[in-house]
Amino acid sequence: MGYCPQRPNFIPDPREVAAILEIPLAELLDPQSLGTARVESGLNLFITVPCFRLQGHVVWGATAMMLSEFIAIATTE
Q1: Which of 7, 20, 43, 67 is deepest in the core (most CB within 10 A)?
Q2: Residue 30's CB: how many other CB atoms inside 10 A?
């Protein structure tokens, strides 16, 4: 997550990144983006996790935690 005056040339590492999402801040801050999802955590075990639903993607795990921390900092007066 970051800000740059011009669009950088993103080169994702496929071992680390499933997709690069460019989300407007207003969408990220929209409470409707928050929810839960049922995901497979391995060995056919499904768990319900907190997530963000952004542009048709479910963002959960460490990325969702970092986004939550960013929102907490960005919205603190």
Answers
A1: 67
A2: 13
CA–CA separation, 22 and 41 (whole Å): 26
Domain ranges of the chain: 31-74
Q: Between the CA of residue 50 and those of 33, 44, 59, 68, 69, what are the distances in Å?
A: 11, 19, 9, 10, 13
The DSSP bridge partners found for residue 34 are: 52
Question: What phi and psi, each to the nearest 5 degrees, are found at residue 57?
Answer: -110, 150
Cβ-based neighbours of 67, under 8 Å, separated by 6 or more: 1, 28, 52, 59
Per-residue pLDDT 10s for the chain (77 aa) are 677 899 889 899 999 888 899 899 999 999 999 999 999 888 889 999 999 999 999 999 999 999 999 999 988 87
